[in-house]
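Dear colleagues,

I hope this message finds you well. In preparation for our joint manuscript, I am sending the Iron ABC transporter substrate-binding protein (Streptomyces klenkii) sequence together with its predicted structure, so that both groups work from identical material. I would be grateful if you could confirm receipt.
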Amino acid sequence: MRHPARLGIALAIALATAGCSTAARDSPAADAESATAASVTSCGRQLSFAKPPQRTVTLDQTSTETLLELGLQDRMAGTANLKTKIPAQYRAAYAEVPVIAPKIATAEQLRSAAPDFVVGGSTDLFTKDRAGTREELAALKVPTFVSAVDCPRRNPAGNTPFELLFSDYENLGKVFGAEERARKLAAGQRAAVAEAGENAAKSPAGKDRPTVVYLYSVFNGMPYVAGKSGLPSEMSRIIGAKNAFDDVNEDWPEVSWEEVAKRNPDFIVIGDLSERGRPGDSAAEKRAAMTEHPVVSKLAAVRDNKILEVPGIELDPSVRSVHALGMLAEGMKDLGYVR
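The corresponding structure tokens are as follows:
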């Protein structure tokens, strides 16, 4: 959030992502040695590189894990803003990279790492009171890359959030001379999305599609749910469901419990953020908040335990999001919404 399985799909996704990780760890960034000049566009800026960057800093966990998945840890001079534990498949590579800031990096912390390239998952990491603006860093001859998912207005119309995410892999592959790895990663995840999408053809059509509320966070007793512009709305479309808050054009709006009850979803998805450790982050705390609420507790989805749990970080666009998508597709079957 930018402000605050079984076999089958799950196995396919594991193979699609883990296979690339294994290859990357076996020969980290070897293909970058012979790479030539590259040019890509990122969030409205043309970036040109005479050679692959040697001292990249990633400003968030999403960007960090993408570069680790591509086997580029030896091209990284720092990471920041860890929200949850690094998955097992990345831990050895992550241990090789300095942590310049446990949370959001400041301009001073970023500059101390002497980066020649900075990668961030969202534009709000590049502000004067954080890492510095993209203009400020450009003046220092440090190019900056922002995920295409956070710049939808600057991307071709019709591109889905997943396709924008895959374009990040491919563009970063060009920058680092790791195009083949990036291509394999994107291809594997496209196949996983397509497999999850087989659900949509087997689920009820149109108005009969089940509605879902995605509960990301409970902060000061108030729920934060997925709105129209967040990845879960696209996930819902793929698996044959409808996000109950598609009329709210935000990623993760704060709403009231009464509004959740008013939408009366057929099922609820809880994003488990236990590792982040804030009050209300764990799946157990979110379940308790719903069962103890005088109105929400009466919803059939709560009474009948039509609740799915997925890792919360995977509900934001990242290299791990296809895993959550597979869990949701399998969950739809378990709940009986797929014929």
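For the figure legend, we might mention the following. Residues 30-177 form a domain with the Rossmann fold fold (CATH 3.40.50.1980). The chain has a mean pLDDT of 89.

With kind regards,
E.M.
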